[in-house]
Fold this protein.
Amino acid sequence: MQKGFSKDFLWGAATSAAQIEGGFDCGGRSPSIWDAAPKEKIKDGADCHTACDHFHRFREDVAIMKELGLKSYRFSVSWSRVVSADGVVNRRGLDFYSALVDELRKNNIEPLVTLYHWDLPLWQYEKGGWLNEAVIDDFQFYLKTVVEALSDRVTYWITFNEPSCFLMNGYMQGVHAPFKRKYLALPKFTKIFMRANQKAVETIRRHAKITPKIGLSFAAGAFIPDHEEDTKSVEEAYRKSFHKTMGTMNNRWWMDPILLGKPVSAYGIYRTRERDMKNCKADLDFLAINNYEAFNYSAWGGDKGIDRSKLKTTAIDWVIDGRSIYWTLRFLYKRYRLPIMITENGMANDDRVQNGEVKDDIRAEFMDEYLFHVHKAICDGVPVLGYQHWSLLDNFEWAEGYGPRFGLVYVDYKTQSRIIKNSAYHYKKIIETDGECIL
């Protein structure tokens, strides 16, 4: 059994195209649903048209990754940069991602490519988006184009980021693009999405030039047991982590059909069906997870008796408790038996520049706490492939605009200057010592 972080552990950081690229109308790109978001839906009327201008500054950003010693970098491809209209491939868009991959490879940084991180092309949305089965074949056309262009240099592929978020927040809760409230549409868009994902895995395997490793990033979590050394308490936390509130709708609803081929019913009104499972189960090489806050602290289904005023929280009021990632890793591996890649973990902070530096000690402490618990999970038998800190850069935080700062690197959005935060240098030490400095 492994007793620590391996020498080939993928220490990295993560971003997404819509949140950092900018260049929304450059190089032949067409708009996404986030480019077209109504101003009143985004805090302070912000938009992602410029963001961090990574489209023009990617070499500068890769140089920062190199300085920090990153072994990997998770980024997403903008569908509307690659396919600018229905059936129209934009070669200049592909050239951008090819140049980015080359720059990463030149600096010995492993590219982890996410193929969909929420930014549906506007032209596809106008065909019906995730409520119309046309999206399945449209996504395969785009995906095949990207795989054929990059798979001679890319091994790791992540089909989608957080389906529970972009689908339920976008089509049910109405808080993210395309800002729809269709509560009864859950089974329909779930079925369409799962078919698109299954076909995506098949398409990657069919067209990849080097043997691919494929995963899907879930917004995953767990309930921390009330008594962590008590077997019955652990069993109850495991049950709730798949069968209660957030455990049902963030974990089991998405994971059981895709990873086990098992249908799910929820709350007497939602269900996936046995006959559809053959089009849902996907042949994944690893399970990717994005983990921030334990389900215990959720406003929906959490422990109402918890006094949050006595707990450490982030700038957006998420509770900081590193046990969250330990129990998430442990419970997910117990249920699904796949190696796990942590594709997002981090915190928002009210970072300020003082005398040319950003002293974000709380983020360094956060990192130590969560990575200590990742190490604990590894020592307890969970195969963890890597850790991608969210995020490399401060960025456009969806409907929250530019207020929350998640980055290891401070971005001045007016000048686009970058300042490496103190936490990033701390992360560099963690990487250099393979995590030993936090144990």
Notes: The chain has a mean pLDDT of 97. The longest helix spans residues 186-207. The first strand starts at residue 10 and ends at 14.
